[in-house]
Every structure is written in structure tokens, then in C-alpha cells.
Amino acid sequence: MPKQSDVLSADFLVKIAEEFGTPVYVYHAEKIKTQYEKLQKAFSKTDARFFYACKALTNINVLRYINSLGCGLDTVSIQEVQLGLKAGFDPKNIIFTPNCVDLQEIIAAKDLGVMINIDNISILEQFGNKFGGSYPICIRLNPHIMAGGNFKISTGHIDSKFGISIHQMRHIERIVKSTRLKVTGLHMHTGSEIKDVDVFLRGVEILFEMAEHFPDLESIDLGSGFKVAYQQGDPETDIELLGKKLSDAFNNFNKHYKRPLQLWFEPGKFLVSQCGYFVVKTNVIKTTTATVFVGVNSGFNHLIRPMFYDAFHLIRNISNPKGTERIYTVVGNICETDTFGWDRKLNEVREGDYLVFYNAGAYGFEMSSNFNSRLKPAEVMIKDGKPRLIRKRDTLDDLLKNQIDVE
């Protein structure tokens, strides 16, 4: 068994693969705790709260563990709200920040008693006309800031579907005044994998300006976007520097606002990415005239990030860690171009060897599918050094259970 650190050894991961089979996602609880404590320490000089953006990973056991740390929950669908409640989160500690949903889904969230973040003029007006100031809401603004590691995960620029443009403030004010809406929070999220601390500072300065239009605020929410390293030397968000600069700016603003505010964040990837390991088995070594392929028993149906975002995941051979290093291209078993990594230097890979993908906790299993009628993998959680199965591997029955035979 591993020590109660936040890193799992190659030998331990091999034992997990042998016990639970592959492909398998493995999550290390202590790493989540380490990441959460980093945030708490970085923002210890201001009144800050954190809400886990559960779209990164929603296994209910992970949600329960994060709840036990004292973290809140950020959700983007009514189903995520319901999962959060089942995991034990207090409705007052759940934020609901959907986009492009109809009023009925917003009303469903209201009926469950969670905090609601509205991100478009149409729903804002409909909600105000129906409920007025009887249920407080937050408003998500689009600051028109381009940020993030990939255009697909940049959410605060002028062409983004997310949030209400800051240039529509007069329209927002008219709706709030005419319907007597009670606005208790302002929110923005500019994107994921933000390396530049100044992006957050620009964002909070915009929110400070917008806050002057709302007398009843209780919080300012900067979303998240904290970048974690995916390989050695990879830049990441300087959380300590961010905590110092943002805390200074926020505390200074608080001196002049009408009431003390809280500073909110919604970390997802930052909390769970590095806790996750994805272990696969080598099916075949295939040599062509130009390339040596390692074909594994998984594909982008299980880990889509490399194909969808051109994301890098460090890959290692945990079965032969001292073997001679060679160059391989690691591919999956899906009937599409399905490449995990081109020209990777790995210790010699043999058929049957286990490989591990690191930083697989965020948007790994969560974005998986049954494409090619392949089965979704199992999930295992390591807590206090003990592995526990937290999701069974799919079976053929899982593929068929919602289909209806209409002979």
C-alpha cells in the first residue's frame, strides 16, 4: 500500500490494474485535499470560499469526499445539482451556473433551494417577471477578456456564449429595477488553464466597477481557470502570488463597498486533475515503415482530451520502468484516428505491459462514451492507502438497458 502522501507509485498502480482490470481510472483522495489546502492557504488573508466545479468529475464518492473537506459545489446542470444534494451538500453551498437552459430548469433549481447564476438577458427578465425579489440571484457577466489554454475553453471573450456582456449593463439595470430582482452576487469565468495572474486582476477590477450598480451584493465570483502542470517544466498558475495580489485588491475594495463581500472561486481541474491516473494495457506493438505504434485497450471514448483539445498527458510504462527508452506513438482501439501521444519516449513497451496516463482526474471519465459500443471503464478511489471500487466496469447489459425491442 502507498504511504499517505498524494502520489501513487508505479508498483501500486500495477497492483490496482491486476486487481480491478483495465482500463481503470484511479483517484487519490489525499491529492484532492492537498490542492484544496493550497487554495485555503493562498487566500487565507481574505474572506474567500471555494466551490468545486463538478463538471470535471462527478462520481458521487468524490463529491462526498470534497464535501467532507468543507468545499462548496459549482454545478452546470440540474442533474449535477441533484447529485450534489445526494452527496450531502447543503443547498446553500451549491451554485447553479447553467447556460442555454430554459426557465423550467432554473425554476427546478430554485425549488431545490440552491444559489442561481443567470447568464442571459432573456432568462433574467423571465425570472424577474415571475419571482421578482422573492428569491435572490447572481448574474454572470462576460468581461470580454480572451484567456485560457485553448479557444475551446476560453469563455469570457466577445464571441463566447457565456455570460451577459458588460456593455449590456443598462439593460440589466432596467430589468432589475422594473422586476425588483434582488442581485446578491456577480460572477465571471474567463476560461481554463490561465497562467497569467494579471488576467484575474483585470477580471476582478471589472467586477469592482460593475458592483457599484448593485447595492445588495454579498459575493464576487471569479470562477476559476487555475492551470496545473501536465508535464515537467509546464507553467502553472502561481496560486500564492494570485492569492496575495487578489486578496490585497479585494480587501481594499471591501473597505469602500457598502457591506463586506466574500470572494468566491470555482476550481474544478485544479482540485481533481492531478489526483487521477488512467491505467491501460498494451494490446499490440505494431511497426510500420515510419512508426512504432503502441496499441492499448482504450481510446478517445475513455480519454478524449488529447484528440479534442490537443491536450498533453504524460504517459509511462509502469510494467517495465527500467527498460531501454524507445520512441513510440500511443494509440487507441477506436475505429477513428485515435492518438493519445505522438513520438513519446517510453521505457521499452511489450505486449501486455501496463501504461499510465497522469493528470487524468479532470474531464477523463466525465467525457467518456460508449463509442464503437465499447464499455466504459471502472473507477477506483484510494483513501487512507486503501483502494475502493467506486464504479463497476460497464457490461453489455449497460449498453442495452435503455434500448427498447419493438419487433
UniProtKB/TrEMBL annotation:
Superkingdom of source: Bacteria
Positions annotated as active site in the UniProt record: 335 (proton donor)
Family matches, as CDD domains: PLPDE_III_DapDC
Chain sites annotated for binding substrate: 305, 309, 336, 363
GO MF: diaminopimelate decarboxylase activity; pyridoxal phosphate binding
EC id: 4.1.1.20
Pathway(s) where this gene product acts: Amino-acid biosynthesis; L-lysine biosynthesis via DAP pathway; L-lysine from DL-2,6-diaminopimelate: step 1/1
Protein's job: Specifically catalyzes the decarboxylation of meso-diaminopimelate (meso-DAP) to L-lysine.
PANTHER family: DIAMINOPIMELATE DECARBOXYLASE, GROUP IV DECARBOXYLASE
UniProt-recorded name of the protein: Diaminopimelate decarboxylase
Lineage of the organism: Bacteria, Pseudomonadati, Bacteroidota, Chitinophagia, Chitinophagales
Encoding gene per record: lysA
